[in-house]
C-alpha cells in the first residue's frame, strides 16, 4: 500500500471496512459545525439597486461602486440609523457594492435581523445618491457654480446679447444689416450645437439622474454560512480527514507483508502459508479498549486483501501437511521444535495449534530423515521478547500473520531466539480464508480433510511451556 497509487477501490475499501468509525467522525463533525454556528449569530443580507442613467464606461461604474461602499457614505448612513450597538467600523465591514448589468449598482447590507438589513441597505443607497449628486455639482446646497455650469450661464448671456444686437440692426433696409443678422443667427446656432455636444460628452451631467430603484426587499433566509451549511461542512470535513488519515497511515506503514520480506527480517527462510478460517481466531481480547475497537470495527486491518474462499477443509489440511514436511526436512538435528507465536496474533496462534495437531497425527515413515519432531507452542510478547532457554529442541519455528509486525519487532524476536540458543529454521505465515460450507450456530469443531480438529486445541497449545505433538 505504501507504494501503490490511490485508486477508487482503495477508497471503497476504507468506506466499507471503516464505516462505523467514519460514521462516528461524521457525527462528531456535524456536532462541531453546530457548535460553531452557536458562536456566530445568524446574519441577514438585503440589497438595494441604484440606476445610473446615460452612457457610462466600466471604469466609471467601478468608481461609483467604490464610492457607494466608502467610509463617507457608510458613516452618513450610520449617523442617520443611530444604532448604538453597532460601531461604524463594523458597519463598513457589513456593506458591499458591486456593478451589475444595465448601469445598476447593487448595494448590500448585512445585519442581525431582516428589518435591520433592509434599513441599512436602503439608507446607504440614499446616502450614496445624495453624495454622488454633491460631487457632480447638482446638490441643492451647493453654493459655488463652476465648470460646465458656469459655461452654460455664459452661453445663455451670449444668446441674450445676440438677440439684442439682432433687434438693434436695421431690419432689411440695407445689405449690411441683413448680412449682420444672418451672421448673428449662425453664431447662436453654433453655440447651441456646441453646448449640446458638451452635455452629451460630459458624464457629470448624467450623474444628476441617479435613481434608487425602490426599497430593498426584506430577506427571508439567513446569509451564508447558515447553520445547516456549517453542520454539513463539519461532517464532510471530518469525513475527509478520516479518509486522508487512513491513507497517510497506510502510506507511512513499512511493515513487511510478504514471506520473503518477513523471512529476511528474521534471518531465515519462508516455509509456506497456511489458512485460518475467518471468525475462528481464538479467544477475543477483553477490556474496555478492546470492546471499543470491536464496536468501531478497528480491531481488523482495512488494507489487507479480502479473504479468499475455499470450498472445503481438504485444502487447509494439505497446506498444513506440506508445511510440516518442509519443517522436518529443515531441522539440522533430531529433537523437538519450539513454535513461537507473537502475543496478540490470534490467527497465528490458531495456525500454530493446527500445525501441532498435524504433527501429532502425521505418520512417521514419510519423512526424509526418519524424524517426527515434537512441537511446543509458546506465545512471546513482541515488545520485549523473552524466549525459553534451549532444551532438547533442534530449532525454532516462527508462526505469524503478515503485515502485523515491523522489521524492528521481527529483528527483536530473532535476537531473543539467538540469545536463548535457538536457531530459527523457518517462518510460516497465517492467512485468513472463508469456508463455503454452512456451519451450525453451536458448532465448535473445524473439519479438516477426513478428521476433526477441536477449536479448543489452539488455545490450549498456546499456553506458555505447553508441549504437544507425537513421536514417530
Structural class: alpha/beta
Distance N to C terminus: 45 Å
Supply the number of structural domains: 3
Rg calculated over all Cα atoms: 46 Å
Overall helicity:
40-55%
Indicate the mean pLDDT: 78
Order of helices and strands: HHEHHHEEHHHEHHEHEHEHEEHEEEHE
Q: Please tally the helical runs, counting DSSP H or I stretches of 4 or more residues.
A: 15
> What proportion strand?
15-25%
- Low-pLDDT segments: 139-145, 364-370, 438-472
What oligomeric arrangement do these chains adopt? single chain
Shape: rod-shaped
Family: Belongs to the CpsC/CapA family.
Keywords: Cell membrane, Membrane, Transmembrane, Transmembrane helix
Main location: membrane
Region (Disordered): 352-371
Descriptive report:
The protein has helices at 8-17, 19-39, 58-68, 71-81, 88-94, 114-135, 148-168, 175-201, 227-252, 259-266, 288-296, 314-330, 346-361, 407-419, 457-461, and strands at residues 44-51, 95-100, 104-111, 211-212, 270-277, 308-310, 336-342, 375-380, 393-401, 424-435, 445-448, 451-454, 466-468. Residues 139-145, 364-370 and 438-472 have low confidence and may be disordered. The chain is α/β, with parallel strands linked by helices. It is built from 15 helices and 13 strands. A hairpin with a 2-residue loop joins strand 11 and strand 12 (451-454). The strands form 3 sheets. Strands 5, 6, 7, 8, 9, 10 and 13 form a 7-stranded mixed β-sheet that branches. The chain has 3 domains: 8-40 and 225-252, no CATH class; 148-209; 259-468, no CATH class.
Amino acid at each position: 500500500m505504501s507504494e501503490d497509487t490511490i485508486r477508487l477501490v482503495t477508497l471503497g475499501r476504507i468506506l466499507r471496512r471503516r464505516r462505523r468509525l467514519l460514521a462516528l467522525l461524521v457525527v462528531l463533525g456535524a456536532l462541531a459545525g453546530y457548535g460553531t454556528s452557536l458562536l456566530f449569530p445568524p446574519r441577514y443580507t438585503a440589497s438595494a439597486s441604484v440606476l445610473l442613467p446615460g452612457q457610462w464606461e466600466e471604469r466609471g461604474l467601478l468608481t461609483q461602486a467604490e464610492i457607494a461602499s466608502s467610509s463617507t457614505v457608510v458613516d452618513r448612513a450610520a449617523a442617520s440609523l443611530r444604532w448604538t450597538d453597532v460601531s461604524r467600523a463594523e458597519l463598513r465591514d457589513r456593506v458591499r457594492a458591486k456593478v451589475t448589468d444595465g448601469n445598476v449598482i447593487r448595494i448590500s447590507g448585512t445585519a442581525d435581523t431582516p428589518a435591520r438589513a433592509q434599513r441599512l441597505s436602503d439608507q446607504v443607497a440614499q446616502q450614496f445618491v445624495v453624495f454622488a449628486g454633491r460631487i457632480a455639482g447638482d446638490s441643492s446646497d451647493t453654493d459655488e457654480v463652476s465648470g460646465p455650469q458656469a459655461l452654460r450661464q455664459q452661453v445663455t448671456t451670449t444668446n441674450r446679447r445676440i438677440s439684442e444686437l439682432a433687434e438693434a440692426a436695421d431690419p432689411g433696409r440695407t445689405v449690411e444689416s441683413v448680412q449682420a443678422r444672418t451672421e448673428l443667427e449662425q453664431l447662436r446656432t453654433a453655440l447651441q450645437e456646441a453646448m449640446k455636444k458638451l452635455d452629451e460628452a460630459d458624464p457629470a451631467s448624467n450623474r444628476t439622474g441617479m435613481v434608487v430603484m425602490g426599497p430593498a426587499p426584506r430577506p427571508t433566509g439567513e446569509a451564508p454560512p447558515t447553520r445547516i451549511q456549517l453542520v454539513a461542512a463539519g461532517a464532510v470535513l471530518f469525513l475527509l480527514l478520516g479518509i486522508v488519515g487512513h491513507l497517510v497511515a497506510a502510506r507511512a506503514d513499512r511493515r513487511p507483508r510478504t514471506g520473503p520480506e518477513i523471512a529476511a527480517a528474521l534471518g531465515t527462510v519462508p516455509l509456506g502459508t497456511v489458512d485460518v478460517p475467518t471468525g475462528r481466531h481464538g479467544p477475543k481480547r477483553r477490556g474496555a479498549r478492546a470492546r471499543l475497537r470491536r464496536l468501531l470495527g478497528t480491531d481488523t486491518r482495512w488494507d489487507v486483501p479480502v479473504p479468499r474462499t475455499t470450498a472445503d477443509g481438504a485444502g487447509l489440511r494439505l497446506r498444513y501437511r506440506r508445511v510440516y514436511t518442509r519443517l522436518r526436512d529443515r531441522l539440522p538435528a533430531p529433537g523437538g521444535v519450539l513454535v513461537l507465536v507473537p502475543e496478540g496474533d490470534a490467527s497465528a496462534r490458531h495456525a500454530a495449534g493446527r500445525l501441532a495437531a498435524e504433527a501429532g497425527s502425521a505418520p512417521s515413515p514419510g519423512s526424509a530423515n526418519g524424524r517426527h519432531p515434537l512441537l511446543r507452542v509458546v506465545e512471546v510478547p513482541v515488545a520485549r521478547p523473552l524466549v525459553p532457554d534451549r532444551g532438547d529442541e533442534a530449532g525454532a519455528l516462527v508462526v505469524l500473520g503478515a503485515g502485523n509486525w515491523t522489521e524492528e519487532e521481527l529483528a527483536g524476536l530473532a535476537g531473543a531466539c539467538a540469545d536463548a540458543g535457538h536457531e530459527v529454521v523457518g517462518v510460516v505465515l497465517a492467512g485468513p480464508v472463508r469456508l463455503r460450507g454452512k456451519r451450525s450456530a453451536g458448532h465448535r469443531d473445524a473439519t479438516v480433510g477426513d478428521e476433526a480438529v477441536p477449536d479448543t486445541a489452539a488455545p490450549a497449545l498456546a499456553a506458555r511451556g505447553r508441549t504437544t505433538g507425537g513421536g514417530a
